[in-house]
Amino acid sequence: MNLKAIAITLGIGAALAANAAEPIRIGLSGPFTGGSSPMGVSMRDGVKLAAAEINAKGGVLGRPIQLIERDDEAKNERGIQITQELINKEKVVAAMGFINSGVSLAAQRFYQEAKIPVINNVATASAITRQFVPPEHGDNYVFRTSANDTLQSAMIVEEAIVRRKFTKVAILADSTNYGQLGREDLEKALEKKGIKPVAEEKFNIKDVDMTPQLLKAKQAGAQVILTYGIGPELAQIANGMEKLGWKVPMIGSWTLSMANFIDNAGKNSEGALMPQTFIQEGNTPRRKSFIEAYQKAYKVDRIPSPVSAAQGYDSMYLLAAAIKQAGTTDGPKVREALENLKEKLDGVVKTYDRPYSHDDHEAIKLGDAVMGTVKTGHVVHAL
Amino acid sequence: MDIFLQLAVSGIALGMIYAVIAFGYQLTFATSGTLNFGQGEALMLGALVGLSLAGNVLGGPYLNYWLMIPIVMVFGALQGMVVEWIGVRPGIKTRSEFGWIMSTIALAIIFKNTAENIWGKDDLPFPSPLPEAPFQILGANVQPMQVAVVVGALLMMLAVELFNRKSIYGKAVVATSNDRDAAGLVGINTGRVISFSYALSSMTAACAGVLVAPLTLTGPTMGSALGLKAFAVAIIGGLTSGLGAIIGGLILGVAETFTGFYVSTGYKEVPGLLLLLLVLTLKPAGLFGKTAIKKV
Fold this sequence. Notes:
Helix content of chain B: over 70%
Shape of chain B: globular
Strand content of chain A: 15-25%
Oligomer: heterodimer
Number of domains of chain B: 1
Distance between the termini of chain A: 78 Å
Largest interface: A-B, 31 and 39 residues
Largest sheet of chain B: 2 strands, antiparallel
Number of helices of chain B: 11
Order of helices and strands of chain A: HEHEHEHHEEHEHEHEHEHEHHHEEEE
CATH class of the largest domain in chain A: Alpha Beta
Number of strands of chain B: 2
Number of domains of chain A: 2
CATH superfamily of the largest domain in chain A: Response regulator
Shape of chain A: globular
């Protein structure tokens, strides 16, 4: 055997080895800057933590996971742009992310068209998993690991009407897709209990004065304010109530747990109630080790958005389990594996025992989420 | 009645925020015929610098709230001079009609991006120097900070007006705004007057920033929305009238809160903008503006 032959053999060997260890490229997108960034950053860090753990144990199918991160800035047009980039340029085989429902509804169609499974791990609009329902759209490639708005609205209404016996409720929702779709879900949930809100008010992102909205609610005799918005404006509502010297409980979607609500509203955030899939209290060994690992890896005490971090973490494990079961990164096969997941997965939000089926792409069911409340600047279990 | 008063109070507080920014637009327009489209960003920078000194974002607090204000004003004045020097002076020199529009907008974007890099993109709470609990005036709840904004804004405008009317330097400013070329001929250094008016304009904006920040939230994006609304106010009130800024601000602020309550919160910005269109059609110089005849 001459030198040339040896070189060729070595070359092929190296190529084969490289192929065997070629990373599995997975897209990861969300708003890592701006008003939604506490959710986006926590989600990203949760996913990265899970990916690092999986890679430390040898990866999936003998290949390491490589995350391709992109910032969608919570903008629909930017979401579309980076989704196309992830699919066409970065050639991802699956994706996770989407914090803002509007971005998800605008951009996830490209994953659907490319037959690439995507897990929405934070976005909550009810329409997200129903955007491409079979049979008219073929198979659905959109999955979710967050509590959808139908479920959250039901919990909010249950808390306000059944547990706390309020009869006069006001709804304050922002003018984005998220707020307005959530408002519709709240109305439907209230209707089931035979209640019509006494006031329904809108506000814009960046509004600095909530007086008219709050006065209308006050004037209508509201005993409680149900909210659908994001951190900074929710803080303006809480601070606005103090301005008016009028204080009623705030019960709203899970965004009331965002750090930028709690920090900007300060003491006015105390007692706000919201549905949570995960609360930063290590009440099981699995959760405890997750919280400690997160704190250690990112050097923080309080996770900016624990819900996003936990859901992101679990979504990575679900995807890895599906790829392992499928034995390939082929989109349709991974989708089938997700819909028929055999491994019972011990996650931090819950234990996933067949989380999805062909027609049900929601991992979080009623009963998986609990009510949380703000107490001395932290979210804790509500009593 | 309570509701009516409460809406009026909130509207006035909101309107004075707009008015004081609009006032900044007028200061530079009067002397140089140019505007700083980064007025909102000057306000934002003032608020963030103030927060860094009096809050704990950059390792502080270093100073208490009231001691911090003069430093923020000096910072604002310097920032205004930079804008004039880079963005406006070259345009005036070459008699370019519109060069300053693009350059002040470009500077505004640069300021915003710089602020995002220093302070991050998130909104931050500004600790209120006054108690946050409201007190009652005729049944309407008023926060001490809201009063501070109204009083502070009025004082600031009054100080500038007094300066213009009573001091010899102020007379130079007035002369320049009346007729720049004639003022130049009688020996007034109009270039310096224009620099000064930019310094004054950004100084009021920076000061307004630390005044309003405890009521709004503080962050790199706080200025854009406010700056735009204040521009509408400046147009409604007239770009040449200080009184116009106050009245215009009050009209817009009160229209917003009243429409929000009596019509719908979804439409609260519509009446103010309709008024803007109406003013532009019927009285293009603004409600209190002097109608200028442009000779060809």
